[in-house]
Amino acid sequence: MTHFSERSINGLLESRIDAGDFPSAVYLVGRGDEVVFSDALGNAVVVPEVIPAELATIYDLASLTKVLVTTLLATIMIDRGELAIETGLSDVLPESIGSPNHNTTILELATHTSGLPAWRPLYLLAEDRADVLSVVLSTPATPVRDVVYSDLNFILLSFVIERLTGKRIDEAAAEFIFKPLGLKDTGYRPSVELRQRIAASENGNRFERETCENEGYLASDEAKRRAERWLRKEPIWGEVHDGNAYFMDGVVGHAGLFSTVNETFEIAKQFHSATSSLLKPETCRLFSRDFTAGKAEDRSFGFQLTSTKDSTAGTCLSPQSFGHLGFTGTSLWIDPIRQAAFILLTNRTHDHDLPLVNINSVRRRFHDLACKALDRNS
Description:
Blueprint: H1 7-19, E1 24-31, E2 34-45, E3 51-52, E4 59-60, H2 65-79, H3 89-92, H4 106-110, H5 122-125, H6 129-137, H7 151-165, H8 169-181, H9 206-214, H10 221-230, H11 243-247, E5 258-259, H12 261-268, H13 281-284, E6 304-305, E7 322-326, E8 330-335, E9 340-346, H14 360-376
Antiparallel strand pairs: 1-2, 1-9, 2-3, 4-5, 6-7, 7-8, 8-9
Helix pairs in contact: 1-14, 2-7, 2-8
């Protein structure tokens, strides 16, 4: 099927670009193996120069890394019998024994029910990437195991994957995901030569710096010194935006992945059984199964479900649908009933004063328009 832009979607996104929500938006709506609608709008870079967005523009996917790399690698390992959802951290990471988190399971990490806090500025607390594991393991977890969305869960999960594969997570992702799928523009730590194709991010880590100040992390001279080292002030363009990922050499399980909308779609197809070449059909059921019913969010293995109150899925996706967001302005939702993927990539942190715009209402409207257009074309 020849893909083309959808007028209603373009109208929505162009209006939000004009309103200043984000400088660019690239979207793709796919069904089965086919791209049905896609387009690129606005400017991927506004300062220090103007570069229009294209379908081939590479975006910092931020927390979509959690599903497109870490969740997918974990389920590939489950498929192969090398990991189980009930596996405890102490079974893989013996140094966790005696820590507050040694009994935490893979499922608790993947569903954000480990009790770990949402975030910590690891660049202020750890000496280097290798030291991050001990810092996170020693972080106290609340005994109330409700859903608390936390980067720390997927940092731990990436260390589990690295220990079991014997490879850094970018190397594991290249071997088990990117190369088998033939991806050319997807990976961590993009080369300098790719910069002109990459959408720019925030003008420094202003949001994180403000968060550190508000939460009292910059009280000591040592913390201020570290903040000057790791919290950037120049425009972030071609480097990972997330401060902890930047501190960890740009390679970790919660953030750091860069990709185009079309290659994001190639990975997205791996999560539903009809189009996956990397997972068994029964394994794909993990992504629609509600493991956290009655808690603050309805979560499957790695994903949020449409039944979560105030999710960004909108009103039209099937109840079995699952999705994820990224702080830089990215999102992915997958509807296994329609065998459809809905991808919206923006760079909302670029060329925008604080506070950044919450674009969840735009995401919901995008999904509603895309779903209706897709159903019309069935």
